[in-house]
Structure formats: C-alpha cells, structure tokens
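User: I want to check something. If I give you two sequences, will you return the structure for each one separately, not as a complex?

Assistant: Yes, each is folded on its own. Here is the first sequence with its structure:
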Amino acid sequence: MIVSCKTDTQKVEIKSTVDEKQSKTITKAEIENLKYNDYGLSADAKKALNDWQKYQELNTQIEYLKMGDLSFFKSDLTLISTFINDFRTEIPKAVSTNEINSRITALETKMLKLNSLLLLDNIPKNEQLKGLKEVFVAFSNLNLQINKNLEFEANNISKPQ
C-alpha cells in the first residue's frame, strides 16, 4: 500500500509541473492584448530599405514574435548579438544617422533583455510580456525615426544664413 500511495503523489507532481509550464507559456492572444503604437514604414522608407536584408529579416522575426513564435528571441545570445552587429554594418547610407543609430541601440538593448527574460525559468509571465512590449515599441520607434528622417530629407528645407 505504501508503494501505491507514493505513485499517486508522483502523478500529482507531474500534473502540477505541466500546469505550471502551460501557465508560463505566452500565447498569441496575450501578445495581441499588448497596447502600444505600432508604426509601419512609409512607401518611401520601404523603397529605401528594400535592399537592407537584415532589416527585412528583423521585420519577419518581429512578425513571428507577434504571432507567438519566440524561437528567435529565445535562441543563443551569440546569434542575436551577431545578428545585431550585421544589422548595424549593413545599414544603408540613406538612413545611417545618429538618430536612427540610437534607435538601433535601444532596440538591441530590448532584444537582449527579452532574450534573458525568456531564457530564465523563474521570470514571471507578466515580466516576459513587458519585455515583448518593449521590443515592439523599440522596433516601432525605429520605423518612426526612419520615416521622419526620410520625410525631412524629402522636404529639403534650406537654412537661413
């Protein structure tokens, strides 16, 4: 009888572990409930960034992230760091300004923070969701700054002497 009782407790422990994992899993619905201003690229910006392959890859990964696929941001830290370094080196001259580089730095920081939040098991789900939102906001701010930069250049305002 003692063996039978012990077996029952093990099943309860396994079930509670499965429940805990499911409660920590971030769903697409929870991601969709995050509130932030999502800026897309203007037509001019899309044209200017069409050949920037790393931006296109990042945009794709952000879209996957919005659908609940966390795999890229849960990957090895060196993969994300290498991606960001390549992202910086391949930036087109048309958008290589201090303002845009600072937005890239902010995005890099938020991506690395999200990576650490997702890899650690003891981080609460609400903290992970805040990290997701920060990445979305940083990427949106990068898009907004690119749009503003290209709009400002298109206006070609002359400065008085």
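And separately, the second sequence with its own structure:
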Amino acid sequence: MLKLDHIALGANDLEKSCEALSQQLGVLPFGGGEHELFGTHNKLWRIETADYPVYLELIAANPKAEPKRARWFGLEKSFLSEDIQLLGFIASTQSIDGLVQKPPFDLLDVIDVTRGVLNWRFGITKDGALLDDGALPYLIEWQGGRHPLDGVAPQHIELKSMAGKALDGLDLNWPCMLARGGGQALSVELIAANGETLRFKRA
C-alpha cells in the first residue's frame, strides 16, 4: 500500500514565496536545497497527521541552474500568477518498479535522484508534467534508510483534509480526512502553527 510522503506547492520565485508562506504557516522551513538534475530548488516544512508525519515542499525553477532533463512538477513553464500554486502530491512505496508496470502509474519512468545525503528512486513522466494534471501522485522510493524528516522536530502544522477526483480510487494509507464535495481538482487544507486554516486548490 502507498503512503502519503509529501505535498508540493510551486512558485516562480522561491525566496519571495518562502517568506510569504512562512508567514502564513507561522513557522520557518526546516530545510531545503537544490536539485541539480532538474534545475530546481525547494524549501520544506514538517506536517503532522493523525498517523505519521509528512512534509510540505515549496519548489521553483532555479534561475541560476540549467536542467539536465525536463523540469518536474510541470515547472518547465512559469506561472501566470505570482501566487503560490498547489502542484500535487507524492506517494511513497517499497515497490516502485512493480507499480509503474500497470495503470494508473504506467506513464511514469523510474529515475535515480540525489540531493546531498538523500537518495531516492522517483516515478516521473517523460516530459516532467504532472500525472493526470496533479490528480494522481508521483511515486517515490527512498533509498539508504534516509528521509528528509529524519531528526526534524514537529513544527505544529497539521494536515486537515485532502480532496480530489482520484483520491478514493488509490490504494493509499491516507493519514487525513478525504473531504467530499470538493470538486474534481485536487485541494488541500492545512492548520497552520497559529491555528489558521490554509486552503490550496489546484488551478
């Protein structure tokens, strides 16, 4: 069974959007870095759920880097708005090679990715586009027993709910409520460290 690993938000300018998102969440990111293969960079926040922690990723094209393949998460194109965008979510597995052999993940190629001490195998579309426009997750299989949340203390952000047309059909151990009547597009509700509810919806 799949597990929710992290939720991805996108932006045109990482530093400006990180400042804005930190204010909304009420806490600074615990980490982040660069992805040389894709020419992107990110910031990360820990999120608590009813069952296990996940993390929130804010990711953007790195203007100082040249990608070696199509940028992931559809970041080949800039966003029309400077607002932070909900991109999609990533599900973790221990059997990525088997999952990409059959629908709905048979459009994904498995590649090896490294960032610092972290190593993972990633299921991604050939052109870097989101799978079913973000309704379905990318896949990740962490390698070497390391994960971005290792040693990270709770940041008092909570995942309240998710909604979307494809969520019910996934064999995924959901650690949050799947909201009903939320429409077809993926949406996420978070409770910030200050108690405010934040809502992100796939445009």
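Because they were folded independently, the notes below concern the second chain alone. The CA atoms of residues 24 and 179 lie 22 Å apart. Residues 14-25 form the longest helix (12 residues).
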